[in-house]
Task: structure prediction
Amino acid sequence: MEKKIYYISFLLLLFAIPASAQCAMCRAVLESEEGQQTARGINNGIVYLMIVPYVLIGVVGYVMYKKKKETSESK
Result:
């Protein structure tokens, strides 16, 4: 079962689709620009900022899992 979760997680990360993370106001202002470089930069920045909380939650969850596993093995 544990390997299945790893495979599913890997596939989800492998086939991730690009996300448009701009709010409606930011999109309206940035779409008027010709090159769209600023819009892409802001969108990438928003996506990178969204990743940090998920990584932190994952690390905390992993540490809790390991500690729980250690205590159950020592009993």
Summary: The chain has three helices and no strands. The radius of gyration is 19 Å. The helical segments are 2-14, 24-31, 37-74. The mean pLDDT is 81.
